[in-house]
Protein 1
Amino acid sequence: CYIVENKLDLSGFDAWYNNDKTGAAAYPPTVMLKIILLGYAHGLISSRRIAKACENNILFMSVSGDIQPHYTSIAGFVAKMHEQIEPLFTQVLMICDEEGLIGRNMFAIDGCKLKSNASKEWSGTFDELGRKKAKLERASKRIIERHQSQDGLGDEFIEQDLKQKEKLDKSAEKITDFLATHKEKTGSKGKPIKSNITDPDSAKMTTSKGTIQGYNGIAINDDKHQVILQAQAWGSVGEQQTLQPAVKQLKQQLDKLNTDKSADKHTIKFTADSGFNSEVNLE
């Protein structure tokens, strides 16, 4: 709370907070940031659960000054203010660096699979999605043919079939629009890989609990005090493809920190599990 209120530059939120032209008074950005970060730290990532905690959790009530924002206000703040929120994490790392909490000698890299809000049934290569579309169109056509051959069907059956046909047509149209507006993904060897219509950035991947549609969440932390310096969700199947771009992002993050320490040339070590191992990465 002290860092949010006294250390961070929150001027990027001024236009949102000091808006007297429309609507009710906005919640102070310091309050919104504190309850959201507190919620995330306690595993509450849903805006509804954070809003509920502000009503009945004494810790959240204390941090928010007993302000109880609606869950839509919390969700809107996260969705609309992401460009203002992202630089705050670099500011926090700058504070950690000033306190000597970042050693820059060894970095540990690890990842986990994160499930996305998308069905894996809507995944496939462009060829597979094209065949799925054709299958849906054939099923829709069979409904019309059945009506034509069985003219005496009751109204109840006709209505049910028409609803099913409408559903099939919408699904086929959804695939058609996706194929027309997206480029096919390719793997490291140039072969086509599966894309997801609902969440094109995600990937179909296997976990210890089965197959999911989701992301590889990769984090890099400094060994001195386990401060996380870089974190990103990648929509690629293997961790091998995420290592080099993650290290590149880490370098960009370190360049934003104390330049005097960055200028101190020394060997930097990385540690990662075998999932990141590949000939390209070893080079």
Protein 2
Amino acid sequence: MQVTSQDIEWMTRALRLAARGLYTTTPNPRVGCVIVNNGQVVGEGAHLKAGEPHAEVHALRAAGEQARGATAYVTLEPCSHFGRTPPCADALVNAGVSRVVVAMQDPNPLVAGNGIARLQAQGIVVTVGVCETPARALNPGFIQRMTQQRPYVRLKVAASLDGRTALANGHSQWITSAAARKDVHHWRAQSCAIVTGIASILQDDSSLTVRDVNTPRQPLRVIVDSQLRIPIDAKVLQDGNALVAYAQGDAAKLEMLQVMGVRTLQAPNAQGQVDLAALMQALTALPCNEVLIEAGATLNGAFMQSGFVDELLLYYAPKLMGHTARGMFDLPALAQMSDVRDLNILDVRQFGQDIRIQAKFQF
């Protein structure tokens, strides 16, 4: 069936509904559903939290008998398996909808086209691919975890215009404005985990919590601490919602951390540092969809070299800090320009006097 402007309009509405779960659905994807009968919305809904009804179920409950003969617009292929909730494909069949418009196929191997096939087997017309690009943009972490078995990783840096993140003595509060820092909290809120290094904790004693954003969920805080130097009274540990990744350390401190409810991961590499690949595997298994790195130049550089960074969030303030101040990434010296990594700019936005550049690597 040919895609119409009305299909795009209703799917766009479903995408807006899906965005309501931006901070809360992890580890599930963000999904919205709109049910239309005779050109009128008769039911709509969004998935908001794992274990609670999916978007299709909310929409069908609102539609009631008006779902019969209607068209359902869903931002992700309806599930076809029993998880915490029954299959949504069956719910749509039982409600008597005549057509289902799907933005994208579910990358979960448990679904992966089975939901679409189940609908078609019952005589329901299915259209796939309407507004697929924005639908994929809603769930980069879920998609990557399902297809590549690792989270989607964003790396955030706040810097002066000359690319400096702290003075030579480590002082960095504050380079960017309150408006830029507030924007960072939105990225924290949609992340499953925030990763930082022990140097940042020792310097700033940050809590790395989400503030200024209305969300019931705090992401897991992950501290990369090769020698287990973290103080027991560090703010980031106090609610127990933390993971310390280390290579080696004192057994007594390790036991104290575990008593506090802090998760620990021993993952040494050959250099006596934390193995970042092992850390990514552990975060995938938790499971984590999206990870935000907020660290110093050393850990930033290590993640860049590991190949795990998918996206950069670069905040620049109209300040100059000079060549003795600390940089953004500790990376090996390059001998020729052909070795330089190129970026694609996704978005440029201003917050007060500061600028945020959102970018991905070219491949």
Protein 3
Amino acid sequence: MATVSYYKTKSGRRWQVQYTKPDGSRTRKRGFPTKAEAQAWIEDQGVAQRKGTWVDPALSNIPLSELWDPWIAIKKMRHGTSTWKPLDSAWRTHVKPRWGLTPINQITTEQLQTWIVDLSENKSVTIVERCLGIIRGMLDLAITNKRLTTNPATAVHCPARKRPKQVFLSLEQLEALASKCSDDKKALVWLLGTSGCRWGEAVGLTVGDVNPLRGRISVTKSASTVGGRVVVGATKGRRDRVIAATPAVFELLVPLMAGKSPDCLLWEKRGGGHLTTPSKRSWWHSAVDACVAEDSSFPSLLTPHDLRHTAASLLISNGASVKVVQAQLGHASAKETLDIYSGLFDEDLDSVIDAVGRAQRAAGSRRKNKGEPKVSQKAD
């Protein structure tokens, strides 16, 4: 049972609804400009209750900021520091100042889209996507907690993202890059360029992670550079894995392991501690510059992550299946591998079709020979 009545404010008459919630308790909803709008709201609530989609208005009248702590706690539980730290920064810098105090039931798709358009004028696509992803995720949590029935951020669009150009080194170029490095960094370059390790995973390796006898390396942690500092945490997606490496790589790793205890790092910076992502005046850029000076076709903007792409290209060009590449690189699914490297698999299409064609011709020849009658020899 719901009743409509008016009350006076400084700005004039307003209307309120007193109604009974599904649990039997009485409450009210205030602030309607007209009696017709109050009655329409009652009808909407009745429909929602009959459909089982009713949400207590009091639960949806909370500011967005109240959802931040439980939402980011889930992110911290499921992801490493390098994943949730940028989210925390985007929340504090961009999302919270604009939406933190806004009640979640007053956030509209139109408002969000206008904000995203404005934000994209001076922020990168990555930041814009991150900010929208935060609001979408928080409002999804509100739906899960029965505070909202729909997510107004779902229909909001971000600017189109240009697919970054992937850089792949040839084996000769990888050899050239390694030759410009000291022995310990040479091992790191070859590991990155042939195994598909991420930078943080590689520099987080300890002696105990490497098993030369089995030809395997256990990847269970990542030493990511976040804000200029190294943060050791779980691997991306918290997906531990065991990867393979070539005998040549193990020959370079074994000297780095000599005389060290299992928990010692393979690579350390001067003074101890994990290596950070190479800066502009580092050994990495010196090696790249030296390669460019000798070969103008060498990628001048090469990054350590490009060696991960190089490893993928080497695996695929040497016949590795999608599932093998997925397992080696630590992707969540084969679909993710195909989304990133579909072009490399397309390059193998001609050789695959040629092989199928040869098998088809061979099968046809066997069938033809099987069907030919045997020639009997008659006596003269």
Protein 4
Amino acid sequence: MEIYLKKEYLHYTGSVKERGVLYLLSSLKQDQQKKGIIVATDCNFSMAVAHHAVRLRIPVIVIMPVNISPPRLRMYRDYGAMVISYGSTARDSQNHARHLANENGYLCLEEDDSLVYLAGLGTVGIELHDQVPKLDAVIVPAGGQSGVLVGTAAAVKHLNPRISVIGVEPEEFPLLLQSLKIDSIATDFSHTTNNKLYGDFMRHSLGAHTLQMAKKMVDKMISVREKDNLVAMLRFQEYEHTTVDTEGAMGLAAILAGQLPELKGKRVAVVVASANMELDLVRECVDRALVLDDRMSRFSVQLGDGPGDMAKLLNMLAREDVRLLDICHRRYSDRIDLFKVQVECVVELRDKSQNCHLRRTLSDLYPTLQWLDR
């Protein structure tokens, strides 16, 4: 398979949403541009609106929940937008934005499936057709609103109906996949969804217009597991030297997980839609991905409390060329045998083969061994 990455995260705000937003703002009438616009919540769409409105000299106000992180708040202000903190949830901020818009004549922008917005997003498909000759398939992430997918599909199918368009969603939030199955908009996946990872997917509901376009133009919908997505994010860091978010990694995750065997030997474009993730979440995702990739493990053993017992364990890890990341030594616990200490270690390994070898070695030496990483 020949894979071509469409790196939409290289936009200034790190997201493909800039395409639709720029076209949408440019199409506004002059009197509305003078009055200004207002947008709510922290998401890729809002960032794109804040950035391009300032560039087009359109007054812009962004309403944010009060619990938004300071770095994100500073980013919107650096774009040049006026930022107001209001409410404890995204819904509170959205309702306040609508209220201010009605009182002051602002245009309240919300991500939807308007033709103007979808046309802007569809320029991804036009570029793919021009940039990759003899393209066989395009893999596109389907967020909660699915505008990038249907916009790209409309452009691609218009230029070459033989190109296959494949949409990808998280297994925890298969909104479009379920909606296509029941031929109506599915609802409420929040009880099974990781809000920190998939928050941008969940903030926007699927539109009826988008659903009908997907039925006509999207050839296949699949869902990817969280662990496959995290490993794909790790591969981006290792091979592309960039940090993408869950939406950005989704297309590659489907390929690496072996979910698209029909594309073997084909020329495939993967839309890498965005790379907006806060630093603390990046660290959590990398650590978890290393565990899933069998390159980081955590274990506990009981050792004797005599001189040299700890040294024997550390020397064994050194002989196995294992990197020790963290160690915790506990002497007092009702779960520890008399004259014993419990040691917990976090180690980093080269690959799955070294991981398996270490597990066998430790099992032979320490009957009390427990693995704690899964």
